[in-house]
Structure formats: structure tokens, C-alpha cells
Design brief:
The chain is mainly α. Helices cover 68% and strands 2% of the residues. Helix 1 runs antiparallel to helix 2, helix 1 runs parallel beside helix 3 (99-109) and helix 4 packs across helix 5 (148-163). The longest helix is centred in the N-terminal third of the chain and has 34 residues, at 59-92. The radius of gyration is 18 Å and the shape is globular.
Length: 274
């Protein structure tokens, strides 16, 4: 099992930041803001899913996952708290988070379902966040000109997503989750995640007043479809999830580990959650 360190990020998110904090780029700012808006509710879902999943294992098999799941929960709880502070600043700027309401509504639909479904959804979404994280760490220019504290926030989050990329996947397999549902949940997660992300990004751009500007959509094309664009770089890793021999650990994570080592002064290790 993987040892996961719970870390507290040493940055101040009480101070306001610029409306276009990501180097003055309207699209990249709106896109990252949209991602952040999904995190508090989404990560609470992940926490609840793996916690319930471990409890569904026979007692003799729970111990093998206990420490890693505790670290996973601690990291996700910290991400949830930090992005809630970030989102508070967005709300003060006048942004409206509609994505979170949809996440909460879907969570209620799973109440009482086999816990393997929630763990399978978590594994699929964690793969999404891991390949996004890898893209961010491999192309630091997507945060060029961003406030240093916000650049640190996003890179720290990306590094920890890489670090715990296998937890939910391994738990799903340990619970006896089958391959058909694993792939099916990735298709469903892809549909909702991409649609919700684009929908919230467009709303953010409309609130910013930059939705109809040519520069906004030029930036979108470069960021998403350029030579180092998000879609180009993540397409193959996304497809790999459907292979029978797929495992998240085979898709890297070294960049995240290097970032955490090089930026140890930006965080402090804390105890596991109660």
C-alpha cells in the first residue's frame, strides 16, 4: 500500500486576488475557477465513498487499506478546505457556483446503492484529476503570470492528486468491482465532468464579461488543442483506462513527487484526520 502524507499548505487565501488571476488570461482563469468550484462537494463524495468502501470489506482485509485510506481522506479533506477558501473569494467577485448543486443532487441519487458504485465513480474521477494534474505539472506555462500563492496552490493540489491516484482504483478491485462497471462509470463520469466543466467555465466567462471576446476563444483553442494542449496530452491517458491491464500507477506520478520534494518548504506535514 502507498503511504500518503497529509500536508497543510502554507499560503494565505484570506487576501483577495485579481479577477483574472491566471496571468490576466480570461479563459484559463475561468477554466481553473470552474474546476475549483467542483472540488469541495466532489472531494467530500470521494471521502465518503472510500470510507464506506473500506467498511464493506471483511475485517481481515480492512487493515491492509486502513492507513492509505486515512491518508487519502486527509489529503482530500485538506483540498476541500483550501478550495472552499478559494471559492469564497470567487463568490465575493460575483461568481455563482452552479456545478456544486448538480454534484450534490447526483450524490443523493446514489444513497443506498452498492458502495462499489461510489468507489467506481471515485476511481474514474480520480483518473481524470490525475491526468489533468500531470498536464499541469508538465506544462507550467498554463499558470504563467499567476499570483505565486495561487500557482503554488494548483501545483500542490496536482502533486497530491498524482500521489493518491491509485487508492480508489485499488479499493474498487479489492471490493470485487467488475471491469464492465469500471469502464461504464468512466464513460458516465466523462460525459458529466466535461459537460459540467464547460458549462461552469462559460458561466464564469459570462460573469467576467469576456465570453464574446475573440482573445478568450483564441486562448481556449491554444490551451485545449494546441501542441501541448490539454486534450492532446490527456487523450491517450484517458483511453488507457479502458484497457484490461490498466493501473493508475503505470501512468507516471514522478512529476508530482519531484514537486513535493522541491517545495517541501511550502507545506507542513500534519496528523491524520480524526
Amino acid at each position: 500500500m502507498t503511504t500518503l502524507t497529509v500536508r497543510r499548505l502554507l499560503i494565505d487565501l484570506d487576501a483577495p486576488f485579481d479577477r483574472r488571476w491566471n496571468g490576466g488570461d480570461a479563459f484559463r482563469t475561468a477554466f481553473f475557477n470552474a474546476l475549483s468550484m467542483s472540488f469541495p462537494a466532489g472531494e467530500q463524495f470521494f471521502i465518503d465513498a472510500v470510507r464506506a468502501g473500506v467498511k464493506d470489506l471483511p475485517p481481515e482485509r480492512q487493515q491492509g487499506f486502513a492507513a492509505e485510506v486515512q491518508g487519502f481522506i486527509g489529503q482530500e479533506a485538506t483540498h476541500r478546505r483550501v478550495h472552499a477558501l478559494f471559492n469564497d473569494q470567487l463568490a465575493q467577485q460575483g461568481h455563482v457556483n452552479t456545478w456544486e448543486r448538480r454534484i450534490l443532487r447526483r450524490m443523493r441519487l446514489l444513497a443506498g446503492a452498492d458502495p462499489r458504485h461510489a468507489v467506481g465513480i471515485t476511481a474514474a474521477t480520480e483518473h481524470f484529476t490525475a491526468i489533468f494534474a500531470e498536464h499541469l505539472l508538465a506544462t507550467p506555462e498554463v499558470l504563467a503570470g499567476a499570483e505565486p500563492r495561487l500557482c503554488t496552490l494548483w501545483q500542490w493540489h496536482a502533486a497530491e492528486e498524482s500521489e493518491h491516484r491509485s487508492t480508489a482504483f485499488d479499493l474498487y478491485r479489492e471490493l470485487g468491482g467488475n471491469e464492465r462497471w469500471r469502464r461504464r462509470w468512466m464513460r458516465v463520469v466523462t460525459l458529466f465532468f466535461v459537460a459540467d466543466l464547460l458549462r461552469q467555465t462559460v458561466r464564469n466567462l459570462w460573469r467576467d464579461g469576456s465570453l464574446a471576446q475573440w482573445s478568450t476563444w483564441r486562448s481556449a483553442v491554444v490551451y485545449l488543442f494546441g501542441s501541448d494542449g490539454l486534450v492532446r496530452r490527456t487523450w491517450q491517458p484517458w483511453r488507457a483506462y479502458f484497457r484490461a491491464d490498466f493501473h493508475p500507477a503505470r501512468q507516471g506520478g514522478e512529476r508530482g513527487a519531484r514537486w513535493l520534494l522541491a517545495n517541501a518548504a511550502q507545506v507542513v506535514a500534519v496528523g491524520p484526520p480524526a
